[in-house]
Amino acid sequence: MSLTDEAISRIRELVRSGRFPAGAKLPAEHELTVELGMSRSPVREAVKALALAGVLDVRRGDGTYVTSLAPSLLLAGLGSAVELMQGNTLLELMEVRRLLEPAATALAATRISEADLAVVHEHLQAMHAAADDVELLNFHDAAFHRAVISATGNEALTTLLDGISSRTLRARVWRGMTDDNAAPLTLAQHTGIYQALADSDAAAAHATALIHVGTSERWLRGHMAEGDGEATF
């Protein structure tokens, strides 16, 4: 382990233990180096790394603070990593989505408010209106699912699923579905998800979401097979 990695580990442990709780201001750099028993260079690099990771907030002229440690901050880099994935890794990602999204949709069916449901319906209508516009379809598709998962009230789950739902991959799938004249089927599946939510039917919500994600996964597997698994998105 490098000195910088050790400094990162020690600062993270101080945050985890509550020595520096969310929102707390860290000691000045020279005081922090004394507490950690390390030189300034690795401590400075550790602070930079933890700032990039969303753990620390370096405020010029004020000091360094622990962030709110909200999932939206700590998992913010997930989406960028997903956009770089290719080949079989994308299939693994779809498997993860297939495992998580139906369960999250079922949970949303038990918790969704009238206001949340109205937002889901708004994006559903926009998707049907944009049936021939792949970019607009993709935008409202992502917003539809984000609204559904947000209705669970689980910020970590919402951030995680939003992160693994690659915008580039969604666009490629929608483009393929449109070219294959399969878009109406996918739109119908979204309607089924909305109806299950409106009925507060968790079982139906799980089933319709599973069918929907499964449709996208099958399309991806088929098109990657045609390209010998080398497709990039």
UniProtKB/TrEMBL annotation:
Residues 1-69 form the HTH gntR-type domain. The keyword Transferase does not apply. GO terms for molecular function: DNA binding; DNA-binding transcription factor activity. Transmembrane segments: none annotated. InterPro entries: GntR_C (IPR011711), TF_FadR/GntR_C (IPR008920), Tscrpt_reg_HTH_GntR (IPR000524), WH-like_DNA-bd_sf (IPR036388), WH_DNA-bd_sf (IPR036390). It comes from the Bacteria. Signal peptide: none annotated. Keywords: DNA-binding, Transcription, Transcription regulation. This is GntR family transcriptional regulator.
